[in-house]
Amino acid sequence: MPAQRRLYVGPSLRRLRRDLGLTQADMASDLEVSASYVALLERNHRPLSAEMLLRLAQTYKLDMATLAGDASTDIAARLQSALKDPMFADIDLPPLENADLVTNFPGVTEALLRLYTAYQEEHLALADRSVEAVDPDGADSADPVAESRRFLAARRNSFPVLDEAAERLAAAVAEAGGLEGYLSETHGLRTRRMPPDVMVGSIRRYDLHRREVLVDDTLDAASRSFQLALQIAWLDLRADIEAVAAGGVFATEGGERLTKRALASYAAAAMVMPYTAFARAAETRRYDVEALARQFGTSFEQTAHRLTTLQKPGQERVPFFFIRVDPAGNVSKRLDGAGFSFARHGGGCPLWSVHLAFRTPREIVTQWLELPDGQRFFSIARTVTAGGGAFGAQRVERAIALGCAAEHAHRLIYTHGAPEPDPTPIGVTCRLCQRMECTARSAPPIGRQILPDDIRRTSTPFGFSDG
């Protein structure tokens, strides 16, 4: 007969005591044991007996299953994740030793996790110092673009209120025979397509006096539909947009305006691609961006962008992240619903395929990724074109990447029938990446001393110390 597994609940017991506002002596008195025994239990120097488990449950009205659950499992997973950091790569850390540390020394484990968390926060703070050095007044905090991005990121770019309002509006648009019909019937507005010289730098203009909505006649069908939907959003959903934006705190007027602009675009996309129908189609077509774009009459970028918003409570789909870059590596849009670590400042990792997509225009490039902390993701990347529409008209080429965590990748058509290959190791940015062997590195990582090359020159751009 196998020996009964001993139950150690030190961290859980300590957390319970603190939540109840008790000292060890108080708990000992309640349980009719000595304070030293409670201390031993909290330090995992004694296992929790069945009698003591029952006494705890009865005294503090607890669910025994909750207290008896293996709390060390989560802590062990957190520790294991932290120890995957490349700075520990040269240290032999057997899983059994990690488990012993969690079980026998929970206080030390908690201290290590706190230190690692502080290290990560300081790591990011150090990476931002180059920006602060350029602007010692901390311009980033008053950067309108950064403000708007923070607002969207904090809400995972999901606004169910706008989704529901836009879905109702989409039904009304369908009854009116389309966007132009709705503008005419509901608002008495005529839609006219005008050449660029008449539009004078605009692609859409609302002429209130003439009761017209003018759109640039060089826009493709997807862009034209989106612009008309955007105008309807401003006409019919302004109050909803204002209400959602009111939930944010903005240091600049520009940040608030950019946020409202993003919310209006969100509503327009939700009108053209209503949540219920689009979410169902996404699952049916296995998140095939091109097929979904054809089905809804939208562009590749509009469709990819909409896929990042499918997190309505109770109707969640695959959580995606999205980024758009130009050939110089400048990020013009980024949205995260998948826990992906974007670089706040500077360029991203050159090994990520989003930067290589310009070599194969309009072709989808897939890639498995692994960040320095061991997180794995799957991404697709493709170039998109803005502007153009006439000979000599300026065109802007950008690349976009859409990705999700590795555990969701099997739901995407892009991985169907193909085994998962070894992921490409990438970093958030060179200053935060501790992979010493990377030949694509453009800057040494923070905290590493650059070594002289008078005796030895490494194969990587920099040689640095181990500490």
TrEMBL record:
- What keywords does the record list, in alphabetical order? DNA-binding, Transcription, Transcription regulation
GO molecular function, a single term: DNA-binding transcription factor activity
Q: Which GO terms describe its cellular component?
A: cytosol
Enumerate the SMART domains for this protein. Answer: HTH_XRE
The HTH cro/C1-type domain, residue ranges: 13-67
Q: What Pfam families does the entry give?
A: HTH_3, Peptidase_M78, ScfRs
Fetch the InterPro entries from UniProt: Cro/C1-type_HTH (IPR001387), HTH_RamB (IPR026281), IrrE_HExxH (IPR010359), Lambda_DNA-bd_dom_sf (IPR010982), ScfR_C (IPR018653), TransReg_Diox_bact_type (IPR050807)
PANTHER family attached here?
HTH-TYPE TRANSCRIPTIONAL REGULATOR (PTHR46797), HTH-TYPE TRANSCRIPTIONAL REGULATOR SUTR (PTHR46797:SF23)
Q: Which family does it belong to?
A: Belongs to the short-chain fatty acyl-CoA assimilation regulator (ScfR) family.
- This protein is called DUF2083 domain-containing protein
Provenance organism: Brevundimonas goettingensis
